[in-house]
Design brief:
Layout lengths: L1 H28 L4 H6 L5 H11 L5 H13 L13 H36 L4 H15 L2 H15 L15 H27 L2 H8 L4 H31 L1 H6 L5 H10 L3 H29 L1 H9 L1
């Protein structure tokens, strides 16, 4: 198992390098001069040329990319063109906010979506199944930012029970987390229902019923455990996605998170911030995939046997 983990970690290196090359190329080809953006449109041309030389923007593309990778390997991801602050200092100052929204959003989605999906599968074609399926389809059709605006209209403007914007108190995280959880919850309901229905029809479930096993034992010990593999995969991938994909939610609730910071950096062609942010999200996604694969071995003993044989 340890060899497998080390192998997966080593496989992440070319993936991160490939992502870095693609993003660096895109940022280099986009129009705009970072030196001009830093100094302003009215800055003298001499100052712009001098700053370009200081930032190394006049060097060829291979030289700039190689220098960036060499500095990144030493832990230096550069300084923001816009704020002149170390890139990782800005990222980690905003990361806790985005992490809390993503974590509570996934937690709410799992807490609500998983039981509803199980009940829908066990009571297929019942009223509960019909209502939950319609609700999941409606939530899938509504973007997260639209749900966020509806929550602001209801909870902040109409009822006045929750603050509309900001992150001053724990109450400020309730509506953003619910908005993030809405689409994810619909995915969990549909995924849990489909995988549970597939497992319920297996021969060993009929055998357990024939032997007189109780319904809760069949559902939770035999069916749910075997249906968890794709569900765990979706949970891990959604959490990694939310760390960099809550841009619209942060914009609706005026939250200074990592997603809105990345969008601002792209607009102002702040290459060091864009590079470091995307590399960070890519590393988190790779680690989440690894954690999901490790969880497979505890959920399904057959997977662990394959790793042991290897």
């Amino acid at each position: 198992m340890l060899r497998y983990i080390l192998k997966r970690l080593l496989m992440m290196i070319p993936v991160i390098l490939g992502i870095s090359f693609i993003i660096f190329t895109i940022m280099s080809l986009t129009p705009g001069d970072p030196a001009r953006l830093i100094l302003g449109e009215d800055a003298p041309a001499e100052d712009v040329v001098k700053l370009r030389m200081e930032l190394g923007l006049d060097d060829p593309f291979p030289t700039r990319f190689a220098r960036y990778i060499a500095n990144a390997l030493r832990g230096d991801f550069g300084t923001s063109y816009r704020t002149r602050q170390p890139v990782f200092k800005e990222i980690f100052s905003r990361l806790p906010t985005t992490f809390m929204i993503a974590f509570f959003g996934i937690l709410i989605a799992v807490t609500i979506g998983l039981p509803i999906g199980i009940i829908s599968a066990v009571k297929q074609y019942s009223l509960i199944d019909t209502v939950s399926t319609i609700a999941a389809m409606l939530l899938t059709a509504m973007p997260g930012f639209f749900v966020g605006m509806l929550l602001i209209l209801l909870c902040a403007l109409k009822l006045g029970i929750l603050p509309a914007t900001g992150i001053a108190t724990w109450k400020h995280f309730i509506m953003p987390s619910l908005a993030v959880a809405s689409v994810t919850m619909a995915t969990f309901i549909r995924m849990t229902r489909s995988t549970m229905l597939e497992v319920i029809r297996q021969d060993y479930v009929r055998t357990a019923r024939a032997k007189g096993a109780s319904k809760p034992l069949i559902v939770f010990r035999h069916c749910l455990r075997n249906a968890l593999l794709p569900i765990v995969t979706v949970i891990g991938m959604n959490f990694a996605h939310q760390l960099g994909g809550t841009v619209m939610i942060e914009a609706v609730f005026a939250i200074p998170g990592l997603g809105s910071h990345m969008v601002t950096a792209v607009r102002q062609k702040d290459t060091p911030v864009v590079m470091a942010s995307i590399i960070f999200v890519a590393v988190v996604a790779g680690l989440m995939n690894l954690i999901v694969d490790i969880l497979y071995t505890y959920i399904d003993p057959r997977v662990k046997t394959q790793y042991t044989k290897r």
